[in-house]
Request: fold
Amino acid sequence: MSQLQCRDLSADEQHVLEQGHLRLLTSPKEIAACDQTLIEHHYLHDVTLVGEHLRYAFVYQGRWLAVATWSSAAFHLKDRDQFIGWTPEQCRRRLPLLANNSRLLVLPECHYPNLVSRFMKLMLGQLSQDWEQRWGHPIALVETFVDPRFYPGTAYKVSGWSHLGKTAGWKRDADDFYEKHATPKQIWVRELVPKACLKLRASQLPAAWAKVEATRRPRCTAKAQEIRSLMEAIEAEVPEFRRAQALAYPLPGLICLMVMAAAQGVVRGPTDLALYADTLNQAQLRALKFRLDPRTRKVRYPKKTVFTTVLHAVDDDLVERVLLRWQAQILGPSQDPIVIIDGKKVRHAGVEIVNAVDAQGRFLGSVVTESKSNEIPAARRLLRGQDLLGKIILTDALHTQTETGQQILFEGGGDYLMTVKGNQPTLQKNLENLFRQQGFSPSAHGANAGSETGTQPQPPGDSILGMSGSHAQSGELSRSPLGGAIGNAGQAQGR
Reply:
């Protein structure tokens, strides 16, 4: 413990500030020494750190003059959340981007003027980088609590922190547990990056922060009334196929739950559906008409085996038709001209699904890829069930195929925008050659103003240049009646 003693320091104050440096404490010995120091000298005599955390020391000539700890931010903090301006769901998903200065201590007889502000400046300059190295993501904003009975918060004020108000008198004692106490504390916050609050409440996070949301488990946010509306539509048309003894979880409630899960990105099968079900509150579970547990008198949520049974036996096509009709009743007919085709592998379920959505994310339909097949024929089956007249179909490079393009253009009356990648060298080379030989009209009707979308003639023999299965000669380019080239240097396009 000799490194923690500073009574024999004789250097002048300015020299201490200039020569002192920050140390991130990582070794078990340093961590134990830091914790013991806080237990002995901090007024709380406790060093419990919740969630992700780091420890620092301010070191001068090998000796610690001050120590501090940082841990996960408080789950619920009204003044802080109003200061940021984010929604409760944004708070839940983005809270890891905040950290709490849970302990700050200057050792006895080491109270040099400006030492705390110097220590704080060094920590704030290093915290986000150290946090990302240790926990895999940066920090955007920090918070702390100050007990006004002992400190006025001057150290935070001079370091650029903002005083927001007082806590409601609850203490976070574990990951999801709070205890009431009678000593409300001051709330202080500080942005670590410019406009951090604006970015934290934006619809989309900056790329460097977005990975935090990806790790947060989706949670059901639907209101009971919204759940009942969908339940009524399902109950009217989807028959129950199970024995009466198995109806602790009625089929309409299970299907409704799976629909809500899919809408929030849960696409990994029965295990993840069960985890999602665990996030529902009692009002939501009651709205789904799930039964009470006779022992606890609480509504139970379904487990993995329940979802496994339903997923293998329910009539997928019938459920999809019901959902599309219900969606149309709630939202009205889709007016979006964009149709996006995208495939997803359902992990833990061993299947692959191809979905159609519009540019607003509205569900338009889906098909399951057949065994020993792939997304390409599945996408074509899905497109046959869509109204493509006057629509623009967007796909990735996997679907840049002759037959798919012909189906969209000549059978469906739509146009397409398809990606071309480096693994399609013939098509890419031919497209590059074409745009060196002729211009690309910015107007869809430039070459044939009298043609309308959906009136395409039947395709000629070599219709779509360079796509898989095509035999078009180099330098040729099939055109739609709209006059637009089918393709460009980076993408094949039907307008």
